[in-house]
Amino acid sequence: MSSRLAFDQRFRQWQENNIQNKNLSISSLITIPVVVHVIYNTATENISDAQIQSQIDILNKDFRNLNTDKLASTHAFYNLSGDAGIEFCLAKEDPIGNAVSGITRTYTSLQEFGNESNMKYAALGGVDAWDTKRYLNIWVCNLGKQLLGFATYPTAFEYAPNEDGVVLNFNAFGIMGTAKAPYNNGRTATHEIGHWLSLRHIWGDDNNSCDDDDGIDDTPNQFGATAGCPSGVLVDGCTVSSTGVMYQNYMDYSDDACLVMFTKQQIVKMRFVFDEIRTEMLSSPICSRTTGIANQVHSKVNIYPNPIQNYLSIEGLPKTRNKKYSVELFNMIGELVFSTAIPADDTLIEMTELPIGTYVLKIYNNDFTTIHKVTVVK
């Protein structure tokens, strides 16, 4: 606990020293290589690749503020939510350089694990972590009926690096297969990775009092954890104002259907972790497309017009070692609707066949990635 508090104090000091930068928009993309260790005793617990990919997809939407269930633009908390500029990929390379799927599968004789760390050690019926400096290790196993998951705080990396990562129950992972309501929207993983990136519970873990909070400036003080999925404004003894408590925040205990946002200052703290502790992960070249932190800010790339009618211009792409870029357009449910390849030179792309709507535009090669939200009108 003391190391966690010391880290939080370093973050607060950094905020005070850099107060003018606290609300800057995300200027670079961080991609985290993930290895999912599936540990099973029964065939049901040996979850499918599709279920695992569904969880990765949810993480990428949640951490990029691209989830379709986000708050309405008229909501009091809407302008507090933000894009963390963090994405996740299943690792395409293991620690010794072999091509892999980013998924390991291991039979165990144990019928279930508890809240201890046995699943993280092969000698105790689990699986040893891959290099935690370079990978986010996620263990998916049977945690019993009372536990959805747990995660290490970043400072645990300093004294127990082999245990660094996230553990999730097989029935609270992804959005299909064994995932069971009300924990079948993938938000348990979003919540636990929030802890892995230094966020505390939104009520501050102070056991139903107003004496402590989560240390984040733009989340309201909260008496305790939220249960179920409330609607409208919810107030408590710590926050009695008209906006109420933020039960929609990923770091609360609401049901998955209610969890829809990180705040901008939570995002600042998560990204601070990569300056302080998880620095080696930024240059970990083990993702298939976007690797580590993008080496250019996307403010240097000019995408216009936006909204788009018939044509889209792309200017200012950096001249990387790879002379070409892939261009992909996704609709708001994550389906790929358009793709092409372009040179690094200024380019005009015809968009006449696209239906009206909002899309996510991704332009990338092995050295650079930029992502933009665009709208098509007619």
Quick summary:
With 378 residues, this protein is an alpha/beta fold. It has helices at residues 2-17, 49-63, 156-159, 187-196, 264-276, and strands at residues 30-40, 86-90, 103-107, 136-141, 149-151, 166-169, 292-293, 302-304, 311-315, 324-330, 336-343, 347-350, 357-364, 369-376.
3D architecture notes:
By secondary structure, the protein is α/β, with parallel strands linked by helices. The longest helix is centred in the first third of the chain and has 16 residues, at 2-17. It has helices spanning 2-17, 49-63, 156-159, 187-196, 264-276; strands at 30-40, 86-90, 103-107, 136-141, 149-151, 166-169, 292-293, 302-304, 311-315, 324-330, 336-343, 347-350, 357-364, 369-376. The model is unreliable at 289-299 (pLDDT under 50). The protein folds into 2 domains: 2-201, Collagenase (Catalytic Domain) (3-Layer(aba) Sandwich); 297-376, Immunoglobulin-like.
